[in-house]
Amino acid sequence: MWAQDIRGSIAYAKAIGKVGIITEEEVNKLVEGLGQVHKEWEEGTFEIKAGDEDIHTANERRLTEIIGPTGGKLHTGRSRNDQVATDTRLWTVEAERDILKDMAGLLEAGASVANENIDVLMAGYTHLQPAQPIRYSHWLMSHLTPLMRDAQRLQDMIPRANQCPLGSGALAGNAFGVDREFLAKELGFDGVTPNSLDSVCDRDFVVEFLMWHALMLTHISQFAEDVIINNLLKGIYIDDAYATGSSLMPQKKNPDALELLRGKAGVALGKAVGMTATLKGLPRAYNKDLQEDKMLLFSAVDTVKDCLAIATGVICTMKPKPEYLIKALSPEMLATDLADYLVRKGVPFRETHHISGAVVRLGEDENIGIDKLTLEQLQGIDSRFEADVAEVWNYEVSVERKCSTGGTAKSSVLKQINDVIAFSKTL
Fold it and tell me: Angle 261-266-267 (CA atoms, 0-180°, nearest 5)?
């Protein structure tokens, strides 16, 4: 967080100059010196020394080496408590905004893949049992939709994290009347934190991000599991870049990248629970326990960015195999369509549900698909079946009938795709 620490120090130098604690000449000297410290970090020439306790003392020590005793004036009225709170908020908001860009890339790529495969049909499942025919694109959009919610949640979180605690001092506020609204504006915050005591120990924004990343990775995990299952059924081809072979069995192609995505969700939840447990017993105000947030936060951001990049790559390179996806469809998956057929003839659904169930049982007894039952056999169950019942046994017709918002009809799926693309451009 060296860059954020220097940004905060430059703003603070201006703020204490604004209230007359230091002269304009000293402000300029501090700002120029901090610029030199920034350049050293940027060029990789900054030398960390044994006495540097943390990033704050390291930067201030180097600043004093460059500009002399004036560097010692920078910390007037400031505590490492409000300093680290400021640095952490700046770093977190930057990371969150960067993650939103990654999510935009994933969503746009996924929507594009869905559009390219709009005509591919596949089996939809509940309880891992064949349920109804759907579109491959509809299935893919079902995984992009929760990720879109995740992006919305992250957008909602940023204003809460983007509040300026600088000027709160160690706990009781600033004794020199620094203009905290000026500090917030200088640093690009949306506002200032309202209570100095809370400001230095508030890590809600860290917990929020950890909770968020656990939920987002849960959605990535669900996607990974679905792809693994469909790959097992040979309905989806996974690119070699995201699979590995076996050290013993030459025929194996293991979906390792997807398994790693799936595994990250559990670890993420552990981080969120761990940080919350650390906070639960802390008295006001700052306590050293709070430094545990950095390791969890930094690793969580790295994990999120890595997983989003991998998931995007998987989506862009995986290919549906229509011939195998079609094989997974069975006439029994049109049993609800058969019930709907009678509904359209005025029969109450509860009755048609029972009738359709009887048709399925007859198919099982005869050991044939229900689409192979004759009209006479169907009429033996219910006389209201007519010759046009043959039109029910069409998977394309079935998915096209689901034309309400969110359904499987092509027009509905295309709207979902366009909505996701439009949303991704706002991130």
Answer: 90
pLDDT of 247 higher than 90: no
CA angle 66, 11, 14 (to 5 degrees): 80
- Quick check: 261 and 224 in contact, CB under 8 A? yes
Catalytic choice (127, 247, 383, 411): 127
Q: Which of 224, 210, 351, 333 is nearest to 279 (CA)?
A: 210
Q: Identify whether the C-beta of residue 133 lies closer than 8 Å to the C-beta of residue 332.
A: no
Mean pLDDT over 214-238 rounds to: 97
Nearest to 11, CA basis, from 141, 163, 166, 243: 166
- Residue 213 annotated as catalytic: no
Residue 248 has pLDDT above 90, yes or no: no
Q: Work out the mean pLDDT of the chain and round it to a whole number.
A: 97
- Give the pLDDT score at 389: 96
User: Residues 19-37: pLDDT tens digits?
Assistant: 999 999 999 999 999 999 9
The CB-side HSE value for 196 (13 A sphere, CA atoms) comes to 16
Cβ atoms 161, 136 nearer than 8 A: no
Q: HSE-up of 10 (CA within 13 Å, CB side)? A: 19
Active-site residue, from 138, 142, 246, 383: 246
Three-state SS for 277? helix
pLDDT in tens, 266-284: 999 999 999 999 999 999 9
Give the tokens for residue 297. Answer: 């936060």
To the query of whether residue 127 is one of the catalytic residues in this protein, the response is yes
Distances (CA, A) of 348 to 207, 243, 337, 345: 51, 50, 14, 9
DSSP 54: S
Q: What confidence tens digit (pLDDT) does each residue in 394-408 have?
A: 999 999 999 999 999
Q: Which residues contact 310 (CB under 8 A, 6 or more apart)?
A: 242, 257, 260, 261
